[in-house]
Amino acid sequence: MRATPTSTKRRQLLSAAAATVAAPVLLPAGAWAQDKFPSRPITLIAPWPAGGSSDGVMRAIAKSASTALGVPVIVENKPGVGGTLGASAMVQAKPDGYTLTQLPLGIYRLPHMQTMPFDPVKDLTHIVCLTGYTFGIACTADAPFKTLKDMVAYAKANPGKLEYGHTGTGTTPHLAVEEFSEKAGIQLNPIPYKGSAEIMQAILGGHIRMMSGTTEFAPHVQSGKLRLLATLGSQRNKAFADVPTVKESGWDTISESPFGIGGPKNMDPAVVKVLHDAFKSTLDDPELKAALDKFYQPTIYMSTADYTAYAARTFAAEKKTIERLGLSKKS
Predict the structure, then answer these.
(1) Is the pLDDT of residue 13 over 50?
(2) What CATH superfamily classification does 136-240 receive?
(3) Which of 87, 149, 195, 226 could bridge to 107 as Cys pair (CB 3.0-4.6 Å)?
């Protein structure tokens, strides 16, 4: 039977309709990523050994973020090279939001001291800053000074004879005290150790009289074996509310070592927004608050824009500090 013009037109309309139903809906790549992210587990690199205070805080952050994001956030430990291996991994990671890392202060410092595979400003996306470490200057209970001002007076009377232990040349506990010493006009004798455990053995054993470090000193201050002279934050730590900061004592030195979450460069802004909001929400989680309190860590929140600006500012400031101390890498 010959097809009539009307029946032919009907078949053409039906075929067009079927093709329209079968054809995939093509969306811009950014919109597709925004609608679907996250759809699978996220890896969060903790550039420290498992079991330490930093690892404990990162796991608490990951657990809370998992709830906020609706997918598992899995912590992967990559210790070594001063906490920079997470940033090094970001150079090779896809900028899809599924591989993230903690960004410790050392990533802005070590590239000025040795060759590193990343530029902390150009090669990373700074998503959100969450917290930081509490640093302090402590001495033995029988030291001949009771306050930071007393210590400065003692050091001026005994130049180069007052030693202090720190966690290694170029680390924050070392550089913070060197900056303070310069501003106070005193000469101290810095003694590097491999880590906080060695420092505590040295000062409790009477081998050194003073130390600069993180809150490993806390139980010994509370037991009366050590005396905390000052903390290095912008505000007093609530766990040591009666101890002044270095700035309060008269010298404008602040070292809080903020850290947050970052990813590779060129991430989709929509994905960054999802991650920022989820990780920011962890700061309201009672379990994370308890973990921060356990390790005497303050809340230091910075938005994506503020954290990005902080990174550029800190990278430049660390360069000046390293050059002043003669620690710059050789070309």
Answers:
(1) no
(2) Periplasmic binding protein-like II (3.40.190.10)
(3) 87
